[in-house]
Specification:
By secondary structure, this protein is an alpha/beta fold. The protein folds into two domains: about 10-150 and about 380-405, NAD(P)-binding Rossmann-like Domain (Rossmann fold); about 155-195 and about 210-285 and about 305-370 and about 420-425, 2-Layer Sandwich (Dihydrodipicolinate Reductase, domain 2). About 45% of the residues lie in helices and about 20% in strands. Strands 3-2-1-4-5-6-15 form a seven-stranded parallel β-sheet, sandwiched between helices. It has a seven-stranded mixed β-sheet with strand order 9-10-11-7-13-14-16. Helix 1 packs across helix 14, helix 5 runs parallel beside helix 8 (about 210-215) and helix 6 (about 155-165) crosses helix 9. Bound molecules: NADP nicotinamide-adenine-dinucleotide phosphate. NADP nicotinamide-adenine-dinucleotide phosphate binds near residues 18, 44, 75, 101 and 197.
């Protein structure tokens, strides 16, 4: 691994003491050993807590992590963030909600010429970072890549993977997220940190329109036929299940990558919609009701206070401060079907319109285990290592990118395939 002048660490996990941070440290320790020659450290606001984490994880994993460098940095202390960024080539940022804590870290990383990856699923934060730091990051030769977890690598790189394999023009994709338990394990499945980020994302959804008008003053050309969103509830023939629109960041991230491919690489932009599938209509009704209540409450101060004080009550026990048990996480499998529609023939120009209706479909399946904290941490750490090793295959000489745009020409998909997150053409 290239370490600049040799005095810097290759990567630092910031927020290592958090729920996601802890599993990221375990994954980085494993992959650093596998890849060899990677110097890494942990960072956070509490030195004793970080040292205890390393001692606990040494015991848990059997690897001696007690000598791993510990850096103290607090989001509210700019100098400490700059010191952290100056001591490493890349920061793996696990401190969320990113709308509150993310910008200061990105700013310090860009100022110190240090790459940055995170697992944000918050479109407002990600698009704001692109608006405010893309040019500065480019100038510094630094890559800032968000959404490097379950939100939204499967959807974004799944769309890239489908487009590469399609051999023709892709007009649109629909993604369908499903999960299942290998065996029945009860208990919460989401840690409070993710819920908190989602509540504030929902509360501030209205920020997106003005933000996008600034970030993308020119509209993408309308490709025909225009993809229409499905009804609120629909039964999908792709997964044979009842589906709802997926409220996460997938669509926003995929569309940012598609805009990049159109503007920078002169590729036809793919239209996209994202859905989530449920095993029964009754489950869909339950989710609509719970989602409706959370959506309404998230809009007022009092409502947000109630949601964050009683997360278990408002989510039917899905969210807790302790997070999911390891047994539950290891028994949770996910798959994301990416169904593309288009033409066998490829037209010369990206904005040329086909005169015939679409005549080809292809489905790609992305799957893995433990989406929130297993596959997510693998994707996050692999993204970091890809920047360190394959920056020459990434766009330009730096900038703020979604993962599809950032990693389309790297070996990330092949590496993920070897590490439990697989991408396969399942039907054509
Ligand atoms: N995209 C995905 O698929 C995905 C999956 C999982 C998680 N996430 C996201 O990851 C983020 C973290 O979630 P989580 O559940 O891991 O949260 P968490 O357990 O609450 O962890 C938060 C971390 O931030 C640290 N922190 C808080 N304030 C800080 C400050 N002022 N300075 C420095 N560090 C500070 C905490 O340090 P202390 O320990 O000292 O309090 C802790 O290490 C959330 O935004 C969540 O949405 C995304």
């Amino acid at each position: 691994m290239a370490s600049g002048d040799g005095t810097k660490l290759d990567a630092v996990v910031f927020g290592a003491t958090g729920f996601t941070g802890k599993y990221t440290v375990i994954e980085l320790a494993k992959l650093a050993k596998e890849k060899g020659n990677i110097k890494w450290g942990v960072a956070g606001r509490n030195k004793e807590k970080l040292e205890k984490l390393l001692a606990d994880l040494s015991e848990k994993t059997g690897a001696d992590l007690k000598k791993i460098p510990v850096l103290v940095a607090d989001v509210s202390d700019e100098a400490s963030l700059k010191e952290m960024a100056a001591s490493t080539l890349l920061v793996i940022n696990c401190v969320g909600p990113y709308r509150f804590y993310g910008e200061a870290v990105v700013k310090a990383c860009v100022a110190e010429g240090c790459h940055h990856v995170d697992v944000s699923g918050e479109p407002q934060y990600m698009e704001r970072m692109q608006l405010n730091y893309h040019d500065a990051a480019k100038e510094k030769g630094v890559y800032v890549v968000s959404a490097c977890g379950f939100d939204s690598i499967p959807a974004d790189l799944g769309t890239v993977f489908l487009t590469k394999n399609f051999q023709g023009d892709v007009n649109s994709v629909e993604t369908y997220l499903e999960w299942r338990m290998k065996k029945n394990v009860s208990g919460p499945s989401i840690h409070f940190g993710t819920f908190e980020s989602a509540v504030f994302g929902l509360a501030n959804a209205r920020e997106l329109r003005p933000l996008r008008e600034k970030l993308f003053p020119k509209r993408l050309p309308q490709m025909l036929p225009k993809q229409k969103p499905r009804w609120l509830v629909h039964k999908s023939s792709v997964v044979g299940k009842w589906c709802l629109p997926f409220p996460g960041s997938d669509r926003s991230v995929v569309m940012r990558s598609q805009r990049h491919f159109f503007e920078q690489d002169k590729q036809r932009p793919v239209q996209a919609q994202a859905y989530v599938a449920f095993h029964s209509l009754l489950a869909v009704v339950g989710v609509v009701l719970v989602g409706g209540v959370i959506g309404v409450l998230s809009r007022s101060n009092l409502g947000r206070k109630l949601l964050l004080k009683y997360p278990g009550f408002f989510t039917g026990g899905m969210v807790s401060h302790e997070g999911p048990s390891e047994e539950l996480m290891e028994n949770t499998e996910f798959s994301l079907m990416v169904r593309g529609e288009g033409w066998q023939e490829k037209l010369a120009e990206p904005t040329d319109q086909h005169s015939e209706p679409p005549n080809k479909t292809m489905t790609v399946k992305v799957k893995g285990t433990n989406p929130g904290y297993g596959a997510t941490c693998t994707m996050l750490v692999m993204s970091a290592l890809t920047i360190l090793k394959e920056a020459d295959k990434m766009p330009g000489r730096g900038g703020v990118y979604p993962p599809g745009a950032a990693f389309a020409n790297t070996s990330l998909v092949e590496e993920l395939d070897k590490h439990g997150v697989t991408f396969q053409v399942s039907a054509s």
